[in-house]
């Protein structure tokens, strides 16, 4: 029985040579082939469909053609200002998937925190103007829907060209990057080529800061397609486009630096742990464990340990503080070494079965049948799952070569 070729992971690389904004993200995703109709359908569940219209068109910026997505908002006498809670309720009550809801709310939370920080106020006191407007809600939620439809496993970005000069906004004239945008760019590599425009908006900074796991030069990948999203500005010499490159990347093993976040809990309803674990994994945790421990006064408790990429630490801490009964957490840096992991499909008498293959320096060290596939077969064939594991493992060992 021959094995099916390995499926590499899909990656989206954001090339931000001319900055990034919400409408540029939407345009690039549509140019990549994401169905704008599906984005519209998702946005309709927000209950804003009577207040705006989404249009797309092909435009040229210099020598490059791309997609310009415009959110045309119907004029109203009194523009509606929203705070973070208003937007969170709007998203939570929509018909979007749970993943899209969580991601969209997290991006708005990032922006609200940045605004609160620069204005020296609490997050619940922040009233959005640009970001609270319908067009920015559509940009962010539409972009999150588009990224979900793109179906990539990894997202990376180049450093960001932020521009320079001044920008007019609801708070008056501000330097570029605007203070809230600059706060959102904490830890992100940036530069300016001297263009006197605002090239990175709060929306763009909030979204790329959430989605990108790394900011670096183009990684080693097989390019499948590129999409271009046009910005509003017409910039001399430089095409004002966001380029998103869709590609495939082989699984990477080896040494990795991670953060371990831990807390001890002795007073929480055990039914809540499953919900907390789901949230942690959706947020980016790579491992979550619960360990029985004995605390002071001989109290039985649970040590909740979360291994996460370092750039996801703040989100993980926030979930532990808000979703569990703990009053504090601890964290520390750890290193881990992993095998290069690939999923291959092996033909068996029971049908095709996925197996996980672990290799080091090109040699296969581990082969493990996928549990869910084996469970389905065991139920269907009325056989023990142990037998299915053994049979699939033997066939995989014969057909997967170093």
Present the secondary structure layout:
Blueprint: E1 9-15, H1 22-32, H2 36-44, E2 52-61, E3 64-73, E4 82-83, H3 84-92, H4 98-118, E5 127-128, H5 134-150, E6 154-157, E7 160-161, E8 166-169, E9 172-175, H6 179-184, E10 190-191, H7 202-211, E11 214-215, E12 222-230, E13 241-249, E14 254-265, H8 272-283, E15 287-294, E16 300-308, H9 313-323, E17 330-338, E18 340-348, E19 351-360, E20 363-369, H10 371-381, H11 385-399
Parallel strand pairs: 1-6, 6-11, 7-10
Antiparallel strand pairs: 1-13, 2-3, 4-5, 8-9, 12-13, 14-16, 14-17, 15-16, 18-19, 19-20
In short:
Helices cover 33% and strands 33% of the residues. It has 402 residues and is an alpha+beta fold.
């Amino acid at each position: 029985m021959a094995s099916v070729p390995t499926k590499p992971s899909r990656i989206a690389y954001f090339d931000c040579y001319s900055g990034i904004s919400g409408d540029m993200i939407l345009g690039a995703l549509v140019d990549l082939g994401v169905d704008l109709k599906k984005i519209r359908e998702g946005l309709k569940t927000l209950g804003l469909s009577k207040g705006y219209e989404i249009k797309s068109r092909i435009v040229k910026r210099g020598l490059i053609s791309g997609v310009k997505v415009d959110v045309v908002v119907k004029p109203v006498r009194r523009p509606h200002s929203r705070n973070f809670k208003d937007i969170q309720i709007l998203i939570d009550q929509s018909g979007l998937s749970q993943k899209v809801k969580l991601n969209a709310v997290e991006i708005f939370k990032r922006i609200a925190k940045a605004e609160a920080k620069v204005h020296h106020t609490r997050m619940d006191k922040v009233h959005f103007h640009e970001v609270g407007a319908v067009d920015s809600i559509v940009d962010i939620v539409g972009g999150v829907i588009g990224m979900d439809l793109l179906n990539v496993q990894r997202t990376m970005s180049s450093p960001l060209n932020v521009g320079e000069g001044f920008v007019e906004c609801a708070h008056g004239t501000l330097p570029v990057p605007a203070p809230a945008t600059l706060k959102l760019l904490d830890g992100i590599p940036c530069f300016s080529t001297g263009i006197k425009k605002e090239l990175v908006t709060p929306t763009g900074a909030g979204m790329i800061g959430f989605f990108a796991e790394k900011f670096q030069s183009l990684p080693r990948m097989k390019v499948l397609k590129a999409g271009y999203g046009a910005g509003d500005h017409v910039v001399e010499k430089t095409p004002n486009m966001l380029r998103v490159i869709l590609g495939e990347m082989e699984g990477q093993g080896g040494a990795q630096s991670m953060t371990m976040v831990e807390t001890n809990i002795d007073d929480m309803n055990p039914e809540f742990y499953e919900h907390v674990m789901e949230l942690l994994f959706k947020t980016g945790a790579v491992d979550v464990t619960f360990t029985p421990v004995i605390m002071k006064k001989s109290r039985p408790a649970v040590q909740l340990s979360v291994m996460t990429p370092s750039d996801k630490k703040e989100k993980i801490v926030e979930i532990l503080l808000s979703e569990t009964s703990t009053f504090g957490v601890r964290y520390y840096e750890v290193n881990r070494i992993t095998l290069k992991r690939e999923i291959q499909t092996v033909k068996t008498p029971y049908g095709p079965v996925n197996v996980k293959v672990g290799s080091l320096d090109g040699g296969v060290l581990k082969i493990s049948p996928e549990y869910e596939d084996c469970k389905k077969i065991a139920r269907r064939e009325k056989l023990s799952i142990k037998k299915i594991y053994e049979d699939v493992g033997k066939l995989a060992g014969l057909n997967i070569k170093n």
